[in-house]
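Section 5: illustrative case.
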């Protein structure tokens, strides 16, 4: 049975949604989960940025939706796209009705790459791209005007390079929209593609380069750009490190600045770091750790140099695979898949530290959180 928790926190709350939407206190939270269709696959919540309350609204389930472990919301908020993280691999499209807070399944397309685990959309709203973990590839799909997904127009297989096997985990567009970066956890590489704005059928150029090679055994997982657009940060799943890199918008080059420990556990030789995000004001970076050290590491960012200084840690429920910071910067919500819970933390905007304000909201195996609006 779902539980509702309402929490009052004295904070001011004003934010502007993407695509020029009006300032609002309440936003939509979409939560993707590991689900075969019998349990909720994607849940819809109302989140109040004024008092930190989280209210369940609706969910969608069904045999056409399998393990929607990562989501992306269209710029106009009309559509939600998900991976189907299965051996066969697919992507699915959903229409979101902001009046009824419901999702309607539209269609699916195969990724031709096993276990897609990440999905992203370009800034034109015309394409989606997946990172296919077991397939060691990325797949590009055009989108129709009605929001449905067209058959793939590009598949890039990285296993042809060399051993070990590629394990693609993230596809991230640069803030200027000129480049696409992809992490290869298997080969400890970050690749760079040039966006091909002149060819609407392919999105990315035919060739790619290795943007940077990380320390062997790092296991690069997720990426996040600093709001200034000057720095890129990578969370390494296997080493438990955060890599700070300087980004050049002129040529897409990445230059290593620093590597600092996110997961400091010595219990297991294999770390389990997962997700990484930066506060809207650009002052603090957060990274989640799993397996033996469930929690979130907190770093202060030197906005001039990009260097990180660790300022604290926050314990969470079990296996914080994904988390998200509220658009107004006041809260951090964490999806803890092995505890079947979403936790709400208040952020201290001066110190970056977190304070748990919500007893867990129960939801089966949540693994991805994304914002939308009504």
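Designed sequence:
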């Amino acid at each position: 049975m779902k539980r509702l928790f309402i929490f009052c926190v004295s904070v001011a709350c004003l934010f502007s949604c993407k695509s020029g939407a009006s300032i609002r206190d309440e936003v939509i939270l979409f939560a993707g989960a590991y689900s075969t269709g019998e349990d909720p696959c994607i849940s819809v919540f109302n989140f109040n940025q004024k008092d930190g309350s989280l209210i369940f609204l609706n969910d969608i389930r069904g045999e056409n939706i399998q393990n929607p472990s990562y989501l992306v919301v269209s710029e106009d908020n009309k559509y939600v796209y998900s991976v189907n993280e299965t051996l066969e691999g697919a992507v699915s499209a959903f229409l979101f009705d902001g009046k009824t807070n419901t999702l309607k399944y539209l269609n699916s397309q195969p990724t031709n790459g096993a276990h897609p685990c990440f999905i992203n959309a370009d800034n034109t709203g015309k394409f989606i791209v997946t990172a296919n973990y077991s397939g060691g590839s990325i797949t590009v799909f055009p989108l129709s005007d009605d929001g449905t997904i067209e058959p793939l127009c590009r598949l890039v297989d990285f296993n042809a390079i060399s051993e070990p096997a590629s394990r693609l985990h993230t596809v991230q567009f640069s803030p200027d929209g000129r480049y696409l970066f992809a992490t290869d956890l298997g080969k400890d590489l970050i690749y760079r593609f040039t966006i091909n704005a002149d060819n609407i059928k392919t999105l990315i150029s035919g060739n790619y380069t290795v943007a940077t090679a990380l320390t062997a055994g790092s296991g690069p997982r997720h990426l996040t750009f600093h709001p200034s657009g000057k720095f890129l940060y990578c969370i390494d799943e296997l080493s438990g490190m955060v890599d700070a890199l300087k980004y050049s918008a002129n040529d897409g080059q990445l230059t290593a600045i620093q590597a600092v420990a996110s997961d400091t556990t010595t219990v297991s030789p294999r770390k389990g770091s997962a997700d990484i995000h930066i506060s809207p004001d650009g002052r603090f970076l957060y990274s989640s750790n799993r397996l033996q050290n469930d929690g979130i590491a907190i770093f202060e960012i030197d906005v001039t140099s990009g260097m990180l200084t660790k300022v604290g840690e926050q314990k969470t429920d079990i296996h914080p695979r994904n988390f998200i910071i509220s658009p107004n910067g006041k809260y951090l919500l964490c999806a803890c898949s092995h505890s079947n819970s979403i936790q709400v933390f208040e952020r201290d905007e001066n110190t970056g530290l977190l304070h748990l304000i919500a007893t867990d909201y129960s939801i089966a195996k949540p693994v991805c959180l994304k914002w939308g609006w009504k």
